[in-house]
Design a protein that fits this description.
alpha/beta, Ubiquitin Conjugating Enzyme, Rossmann fold, L-2-Hydroxyisocaproate Dehydrogenase, Chain A, domain 2, six-stranded parallel β-sheet, four-stranded antiparallel β-sheet, 15 helices, about 40% helix, elongated, UBQ-conjugating_enzyme/RWD, UEVLD enzyme, L-lactate dehydrogenase (NAD+) activity, UEV_N, NAD(P)-bd_dom_sf
């Protein structure tokens, strides 16, 4: 059942050589949503020096997408040990480390994880000894922790009703707690799109900035977590993260984002195997392509926010400022985000003769040019993109089958033969892209789309996936 069996076996051999006290077995693990899976786990002790020398008992669960997703790690305290809750350990013994949050194959390894575990435990010891009387009081807690780490929690019975998991409701996960991530959470919550919104905060340390404020003011139905398993069974997973590295060139910046996604996409795909991935990270066309490749999802379930915001603004201006409502319903911004976006139309209404056709084209061009003048200077702020994301999520979760201009696989459209994602009008529903809406045949639009496809494809060829 392990997708990358040979790589996993090789890693476990390395662990056995370096830490021979570890033992391996297959057991059933129960995730937070009550779902279960048979997973490989290994238990043992790691040597820690904290004044004296200590052997800290741990258990690591290896996900079936390893080594592209990090393991789930727990302490395994004995009866005379108590958990010291701190920066890297919670009350149930779950271990949280920067190494896990930044996991990226092939840079990240189990040996490297254990080494960081030792280093962090030497800064802050995760366990302490208790007296025999205190140990007796702990037996119930330890029993509960054992059930969690061995996949035997009461969630098996309490979360199942009528053969259906309690987790089968509308959940949306937003990955990234920056300004854009917070904006997406607030917009999704405001539009009442989902029963629950999970914000995955992948930053190191405690919650900062907006994530902390969400906790302080307790926005209803919003959960903040650093644990990928909190995203389990999401209908939509929104990607907002962007690397903040010290890259010097544009290509380096994109490669940093690709490296970041290598530690994220396999994990969220593992926990939400039927989700629609909605990419808002930059550059959206390339990062949507990267998400598609890393997730192995069908093309219909990996889309980028694309030109949805520009299209909605375009149509609004046509309707409300220029009073051209008839044109607005067929007007779209397509192609790639930024300066290379293109205005196009989906109306295929027949006209009586060539003169009428020319007049209709001239009218569209004049109206479009006036609209673009009005739109100039209206940038894409975090809150406006957040509203656009909520709009797309609403159409997906509620199966509205509404047309949006989103980044989708453009191969086969407009004589494009490469695997690139461009913004095109698509009907969206619970399965993502249901159908691509045909554009009017305009040689200039097709030429611009082909040019964008060529430049994006050339850029993608230089990336290391």
């Amino acid at each position: 059942q392990y997708k990358f069996r040979d790589l996993t076996i090789e890693e476990l051999k390395n662990v056995s050589k370096t830490y021979p006290n570890f033992t391996f077995s297959m057991n059933t693990y129960t995730f937070k949503d009550g779902s279960q899976k048979d997973l490989l786990n290994f238990s043992g002790t790691v040597p820690v020096k904290y004044g004296n020398s200590y052997n800290i008992p741990v258990c690591l669960w290896i996900l079936d997408s390893h080594p592209f997703a990090p393991p789930i790690c727990f302490l395994k305290p004995t009866a005379n040990m108590s958990i010291a809750v701190g920066r890297h350990v919670d009350a149930q013994g779950r271990i949280y480390l920067p190494y896990l949050q930044n996991w990226s194959h092939p840079k990240s390894t189990l040996i490297g994880l254990i080494k960081e575990m030792i280093a962090k435990f030497e800064e802050e010891l995760p366990l302490y000894s208790v007296s025999s009387s205190d140990a007796a009081r702990q037996s119930e807690l330890l029993s509960y922790i054992a059930r969690i780490t061995e996949g035997e929690t009461d969630m098996k019975s309490s979360r199942k009703t009528g053969g259906r998991s309690e987790g089968c409701f509308n959940k949306i996960t937003v990955v990234g707690a920056g300004d854009l991530g917070i904006a997406c959470v607030l917009a999704v919550a405001a539009k009442d799109v989902a029963d629950k919104v999970v914000l995955l905060d992948l930053s190191e340390g405690a919650a900062k900035g907006g994530a902390m404020d969400l906790e302080i003011f307790a926005v209803p139905n919003v959960e903040i977590s650093k644990d990928f398993s909190a995203s389990a069974d999401s209908k939509v997973v929104v990607l907002t993260v962007n690397s903040l590295g010290n890259a010097q060139t544009y290509l380096d910046v994109i490669q940093s984002n690709v490296d970041l996604f290598r530690g994220i996409i396999p994990a969220v795909s593992h926990y939400s195997q039927n989700a629609v991935l909605l990419v808002a990270s930059h550059p959206v066309e390339v990062m949507t392509f990267v998400s598609w490749k890393l997730s192995s999802f069908p093309k219909s379930r990996v889309i980028g926010v694309g030109a949805n915001l520009d299209s909605e603004r375009f149509q609004y201006m046509l309707t409300n400022l220029l009073k051209a409502e008839v044109l607005a319903k067929d007007a779209w911004v397509v192609g790639e985000q930024g300066e290379d976006k293109v205005l196009s139309w989906t109306s295929c209404n027949a006209v009586a003769n060539q003169t009428e056709a020319m007049a209709a084209r001239n009218t569209k061009e004049k109206v479009a040019n006036r609209t673009m003048e009005v739109l100039k200077g209206k940038g894409q702020r975090s809150w406006s993109v957040g509203l656009s994301v909520a709009d797309l999520a609403d159409s997906i979760v509620k199966d509205k089958r509404k047309v949006h201009s989103v980044s989708t696989l453009a191969k086969g459209c407009c004589n494009i033969n490469s695997e690139v994602f461009l913004s095109l009008p698509c009907i969206l529903g619970t399965s993502g892209v249901i159908e691509m809406v045909r554009l009017e045949e305009d040689p200039l639009v097709q030429e611009k789309l082909q040019s964008s496809a060529g430049s994006i494809h050339d850029l993608q060829q230089q990336l290391k996936l």
